[in-house]
Amino acid sequence: MILEISLHMNNKYTNLLAFDSENVWHPYTSMTDPLPTYLVDSANGVTINLASGENLTDGMSSWWAVIHGYNHPKLNKALIEQAKKVSHVMFGGLTHEPAIKLAQTLLEITPSSLSKVFFSDSGSVAVEVAIKMSLQYWHSKSSINGNKLTKTKLLTVKSGYHGDTFAAMAVCDPINGMHQLFESNLTQHYFAPEPKIAFGEQWNEDEMLELTAMFKLYHNELAAFIIEPIVQGAGGMRIYHPNYLLSCQALCKKYNVLFIVDEIATGFGRTGELFACDWNNITPDILCLGKALTGGYMTLAATLCSKDVADVISTGEANCFMHGPTFMANPLACAVANASLDLLLERNSGEYVNKTQKYTSNIWKNTTSYFNVKTIESYLQKKMVLLSKHKRVNDIRILGAIGIVESKQKVNMAIIQKRFVELGVWIRPFGQLIYIMPPFISTPADINKLINAIRTVLDEDSCFIN
Ligand SMILES: Cc1ncc(COP(=O)(O)O)c(C=O)c1O
User: Fold this and answer.
1) How far is residue 401's CA from residue 452's CA, in Å, rounded to a whole number?
2) Residues 390 and 328 in one domain
3) Does some domain include residue 413?
4) Same domain, 264 and 285
5) Which residue in the list 70, 137, 161, 352 is annotated as catalytic?
6) How far does CA 410 lie from the centroid of its chain?
7) pLDDT tens for residues 351-369?
8) pTM above threshold 0.90
9) 291 carries an active-site annotation
10) Burial of residue 283 (number of CB atoms within 10 Å: 0-12, 13-18, 19+)
């Protein structure tokens, strides 16, 4: 009987996977020759349970998002409680407490330059909104002042990644980005060399020469400068010196260009500071948030901007900001984001409503999440660094709960992925990069398991392309 049930279950899973492989498109995947996918049954804490029976230690936080781990009782409760009240209402003409409370918290914990919040449904859309805000800002300025509109382009750095929608793609790395294919359909912007001086290296002002020259040359055309703070993620997993970001801010001020910071991957503690902006007290004009905003439970993003940006847009020709997604500020997503922030900041729900005082980095540095990120970082520094001696390794980069092994060869995705699953971990490399950004609740034993698995695959030729 037991054998019969298990055969029946196996059949069910085989059928599901066969349908998936035939009909369901996965990220960055071929439909004619799809890479294998693994069927998830459930997930709990740092463990992803496959339907086939394997239990995998998660090294990815589902792409930076699941910071508190899976199936968290407090996040589950927030969702259930909110679902009993209202799961969704349009945000045009209506508002609700979860969104208001979330906006209050975000303004309290982010840089002091920001005072308005625009909610949207994904990181890419948050970037679209940021770019649109910057373009509409200069459009409004020129209509108010009666000047010709010249500031319609963006400046960014190479090796960046800001999402997959068209405005976001147009500021991703133009060569090694995934979007070279669409070049002829993308707005052409300006690209400076990527930051070269790594986090922790000696700072040298010469680093800014080329970027400064571009600001000088093009500032009359520039609506905004956009950058990922400190960590360039999907564009190459590079970690750069905080002084670079500070100098970018100074250049934006000097040349009258809006400063957009994309914290979608780095926000909410991942780098060790609550926001990567906090490494050097950066005060952007526009800030993009997403991913870990809801603890990885729901898709939700936010674009925050300064009073000046909002005022200028609102007094220009259109009198309003021209954007409004159907699922803007979805109450379920906002409720779970509030619960996630309560966990992260160790505050009781409602404790901070109507308080205008800024959250300080001292408070963050007393939380369990901060302590956990620092513990993960020191463990990575102790153990992952040892992999730098491996003949296949080019570089090791570590910051907060992010550990990156850059190999000399590209990985063979199908084989390396299968090996990681056999080794009981979920790590999803790309190109030459094998990297982990585990949930903050990961223990040293979990991190050890992830590092050991990386060490094992580094020894296996079949996991790499020559
Ligand atoms: C820095 C950055 N910006 C934007 C995005 C796009 O976010 P989403 O995938 O939610 O659209 C990502 C996603 O990886 C990101 O890392």
Assistant:
1) 17
2) no
3) yes
4) yes
5) 161
6) 23
7) 655 555 678 888 999 999 9
8) yes
9) yes
10) middle
10 found inside a domain: no
Write out the residue range of the structural domain in which residue 428 sits. 38-70+370-465
Residues 168 and 139 reside in one and the same domain: yes
Give the Cα separation of 362 and 367 in Å (integer): 9
Assess whether the C-beta atom of 172 lies below 6 angstroms from ligand 1: no
Q: 61 lies in a domain?
A: yes
Q: How far apart are CA 422 and CA 99, in angstroms?
A: 42
User: 296 in ligand 1 pocket by Cβ < 6 Å?
Assistant: no
- Bridge partners, residue 119, by sequence: 302
Q: Are residues 290 and 412 in the same domain?
A: no
| Catalytic annotation present for 28 | yes
- Whether residues 65 and 82 share a domain: the answer is no
| DSSP result, 291-321 | GGGGTTSS--EEEEE-HHHHHHHHHSTTSS-
299 and 395, same domain (yes or no): no
Q: How far apart are the C-alpha atoms of 282 and 285, rounded to whole Å? A: 10
Please work out whether the CB of residue 127 comes within 6 Å of at least one atom of ligand 1: yes
Q: How many domains does the chain have?
A: 2
Q: How is residue 184 written in tokens?
A: 């002829």
Average model confidence (pLDDT) across the chain: 94
Average confidence (pLDDT) per 10 residues, the chain, 466 residues: 60 91 94 94 98 97 98 98 98 98 95 97 98 97 90 97 96 80 91 97 98 98 98 95 98 98 98 97 98 98 98 89 95 98 88 65 93 98 97 98 98 96 97 97 98 98 94
Whole-number pLDDT of residue 87: 98
